């Protein structure tokens, strides 16, 4: 698929993507000769979403098999493909998919052989770079992994200036790993296998080729395959305004309370050319106590499960309302009404702070 520049988005299309809350933000970004977006606010809205949000189901064997097949890129060297499955070899627990020239997304399962997995532990987002402090995008990228090494363990961390990927891991279930003192619940895992770079180390370079040479945007076939796999809906039908789906999003439950989402660059995802966010939602109510792991800087946006429209679902008016708390991790640099977004957790994504 040809590369599409998503560094800027047409304001009209941004409003479609974001809804009323986004319209307010766009109004604040208008040029002097442009008219602001008028928005009428009901001073006494009728509350919706007072019943609990729909529950999801764990991934089935077919779901896992489909995801493993779709995440079919190999950004690590052959020596790190230590697990032999029936269909191909794997880096332990991981499958990968390139989504741009510099970024990839991944799934981290509960079994070294993804074909034998029964659950998903993490979603992963990777950024090409070097093992230096300058190249580390932000704190959520706690782990650096070399693209070429003699084995999987040998790829963790490295020497100053080594080429590889800075990785964010977002836990999607209650899990316990050796680098945790106790089990953790769904969250951005800032403690995932920390590989701190040398303090003050300099250098950043992405102009190198991955072992598979697979860098690039998703193809139309890749997009369609992912859309087919992310086949769940959790909102009421009034919010499914874009060809029977919620605008710009597709969803996949991984448990009763947790879902994943892909956020595209078009309201009708069938027309999308680029993935701009990979994220997670957790069932809860519009109250600070339900923000996952108290990470209010990361889970900035709450969305009601029942509303008169997609726009009306942004945020809530009462702590008794139910929906999902969402964390949006950008998968490429792009521009939104609130400013330039770089690869990483978007901590400015349509904030809906509860009282």
From TrEMBL:
Region Disordered, annotated ranges: 27-62, 194-219
Acidic residues bias locations: 30-45, 208-219
Protein name: Uncharacterized protein
Source species of the chain: Natrialba chahannaoensis JCM 10990
Upper taxonomic lineage: Archaea, Methanobacteriati, Methanobacteriota, Stenosarchaea group, Halobacteria
């Amino acid at each position: 698929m040809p590369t599409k520049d998503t560094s800027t988005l047409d304001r009209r299309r941004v409003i479609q993507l974001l809804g009323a809350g986004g319209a307010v933000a766009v109004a604040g970004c208008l040029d002097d000769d442009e008219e602001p977006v008028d928005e009428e606010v009901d001073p006494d809205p009728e509350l919706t979403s007072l019943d609990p949000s729909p529950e999801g189901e764990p991934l089935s064997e077919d779901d896992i098999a489909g995801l493993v097949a779709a995440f079919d890129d190999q950004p690590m060297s052959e020596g790190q493909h230590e697990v032999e499955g029936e269909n191909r070899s794997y880096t332990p627990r991981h499958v990968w998919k390139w989504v741009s020239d510099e970024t990839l997304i991944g799934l981290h399962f509960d079994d070294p052989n993804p074909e034998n997995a029964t659950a998903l532990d993490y979603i992963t987002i990777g950024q090409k770079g070097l093992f230096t402090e300058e190249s580390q995008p932000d704190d959520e990228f706690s782990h650096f992994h070399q693209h070429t090494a003699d084995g999987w363990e040998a790829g963790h961390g490295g020497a100053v200036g080594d080429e590889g990927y800075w990785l964010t891991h977002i836990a999607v279930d209650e899990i316990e790993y050796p680098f945790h003192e106790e089990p953790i619940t769904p969250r951005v895992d800032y403690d995932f296998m920390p590989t701190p770079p040398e303090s003050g180390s300099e250098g950043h370079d992405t102009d190198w080729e991955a072992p598979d040479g697979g860098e690039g945007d998703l193809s139309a076939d890749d997009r369609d395959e992912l859309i087919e796999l992310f086949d769940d809906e959790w909102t009421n039908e009034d919010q499914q305004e874009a060809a029977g789906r919620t605008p710009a999003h597709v969803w996949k439950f991984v448990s009763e309370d947790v879902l994943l989402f892909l956020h595209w660059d078009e309201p009708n995802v069938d027309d999308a050319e680029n993935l701009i966010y990979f994220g997670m939602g957790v069932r809860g109510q519009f109250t600070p106590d339900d923000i996952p792991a108290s990470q209010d800087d990361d889970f900035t946006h709450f969305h009601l499960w029942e509303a008169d429209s997609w726009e009306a679902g942004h945020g809530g008016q009462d702590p008794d309302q139910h929906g999902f708390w969402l964390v949006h991790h950008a998968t490429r640099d792009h521009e939104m009404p609130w400013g330039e977004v770089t690869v990483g957790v978007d901590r400015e994504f349509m904030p809906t702070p509860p009282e």
